[in-house]
Amino acid sequence: MDTLPLQLKLTGERCLLVGGGSIAARKLTMLLRAGADVTVVAPQIGDAVAAEVPAERLHRRAFAAADVSGCRLVMAATGDHEVNQAVFDACQQANILINAVDDPELCTVMFPAIVDRSPITVSIGSSGRAPALARIVRSVIERALPPGIGKLAEFLQARRDVIKTVKTDLDARVHFYDDLWASGISRALEAGKLDAAEELFEQGLSSTPNGEVAIVGAGPGDAELLTLKALRYIERADVLLYDNLIGPDVLEFARRDAEKIYVGKRKRSLQTQQDRIHELMVEHARAGRRVVRLKGGDPFIFGRGGEEVDVLREAGIAYTVVPAVTAAIGCAAYAGIPLTHRDAAQSVRFVTGHRKEDRINLDWPELALPNQTLVLYMARGGLREICGELISHGRDADTPAAVIENGTRPDQRVLKATLSTLPDLVEATEFTGPTITIVGEVVALAP
Q: Residues with Cβ < 8 Å from 395, sequence gap 6 or more?
């Protein structure tokens, strides 16, 4: 973050606008809407500016350094770099905030694109690098925000003391506001239905927050593959339990005050670690918190989500399961590998390569059948055994095979080989991220 976003109170404050043309007119409108007391200095002042400022505050002359004296904020909208530099130097000398339009190096404060739903305002800045892009982002937010959000802010402001008195706990207040927002109260206020809004408010105020757990699939890695439902649960969570497969860009969607607990598993201690995850889910839910158990891929595809649901049922904890794009589907798609294809594979099998009691116990004769695609989770450590068993049970040694590391992420890597050569290739390669293995003729179809 190159700049710190702030909101500056300018009501009744003296501000200086240097410039009198069309650009200055746009900036003047913004200053006046903020309640500023504006003085304008410029050799030529256009009608649009002159019509908005009292004559005694219009000075038709060149800028002088003394003009900045006593100002809270100065804006230079001249289109002349030398004049902007003089204004900047005077402001620096007097320790006054300065914004020079289209001269980012001569600014100590930047003006963002603004979505105005007063008293709710949203600012979008680019640190002066791409103001046109900031305006595009503003238009996206304009469409997303309901028109009634400003009325909702005023409605809640009038009831702020009541909310604090009833909802004394911070988590309880957060839950109250989240649930009130979801209730559609802003639409009621926008339609002028004050009685309906009051009823929704009272219902929310009297409700007691109940703890709950959402077992949420985060997909294979790319944050843009999150479902809308997954995103909604992540944004509302009080506590997130996450593991190795969750990237930092996914966690960025969580509230800043949410508790993030890493529960990544280590070899030889998987059961102990899973038991601890169960304890954390139940403990936080019973404390009235909204818990999100965030899992890579889909929770019910080799994700132990079923075990976690059993624990929550037994404990009487309310839960939701949010499915996701599976690692198999996401990684294959991003690698350009179709899991099924009319000419190469009429079925696809998802299997785990995880060892149990030092063996990979799978139905090898079935898995070795031709014209099917195998997707193997957690197979890297036992890949040589897997490939050997498939070959010995009849799968052609030249069957295409691939290992995908960090699938769907920017650092995705795809290693293509055959059943007979893949183990040597993998052993000679250093991996730092999670992998998934695909075996079948469809691998040859990838670019």
A: 367, 368, 369, 370, 419, 439
